[in-house]
Every structure is written in structure tokens, then in C-alpha cells.
Automatic annotation (TrEMBL):
This is Anti-sigma factor antagonist. It comes from Pseudonocardia aurantiaca. Residues 9-118 form the STAS domain. Pfam families: STAS. Belongs to the anti-sigma-factor antagonist family. InterPro entries: Anti-sigma_ant, STAS_dom, STAS_dom_sf.
Amino acid sequence: MEEPFDLLQVAVSEPRPGVVVVAPVGEVDVATSGMVREAVSHALDSRPQCIVVDLRGVTFCGSTGLVVLLDARNAAEDAGVGFGTFGGRQIVRRVLEITGLGPLLRHGEDLDQALAAQQSW
């Protein structure tokens, strides 16, 4: 059996002051979603202005992954921190489109669009 860290890696960076980017690479599903949840939780501890999840490296996002993204958005908002997502392969973008979650997650094509979406909320 594969371990979750074999299926997903999560990098965290601060490309701009006050902006933390959480970048999962691999599959976000029931086995790995805790890694994304933990990364966002740690990012919130630093009290940034905004947390953005970079979905460009995600190869699969199951329903549990979507729940984690929604929970992350809610936790960020509860803490007064902006939240957004950006990028993603066609399969991930399609899931966001079908479920209607793209606007709720303030999804953009790139980091700049995700950050701009924060201004409209």
C-alpha cells in the first residue's frame, strides 16, 4: 500500500509579503487530504493577509479534496484571512466547474487573478 506522502507532496511559500501559497503536487483525496489541511492550518498560524492554494500540480481532486478546500476557505475567513485558489489541470478545472465551486473558492488562472478576486469579496 502506498503511503500518503508517496501520492502527494505539499510545498508552502511566501512569494509576496503577507501571501502564503500552499502548493500540493499529486492526488488530493481521502488518503492525502490531511496533508493539505495541515499545511493550510500551519499557514493560518502565521496570520498572513491571504492564503492561496496553487492547484497546478494536482493530478486528481476527489470529493474529500473539495471538502478540504472549502474547509480551508471557511477557516481562513473565520480568521480574517483572504483565501483563493488558482491554476489546475483540465481534470481539476472541470471538477470546479461541474460542482460550481470555482467562484466560491475564488479560483483564478494564476496567482494575480486569485489575489484580485480577494478584492471583489
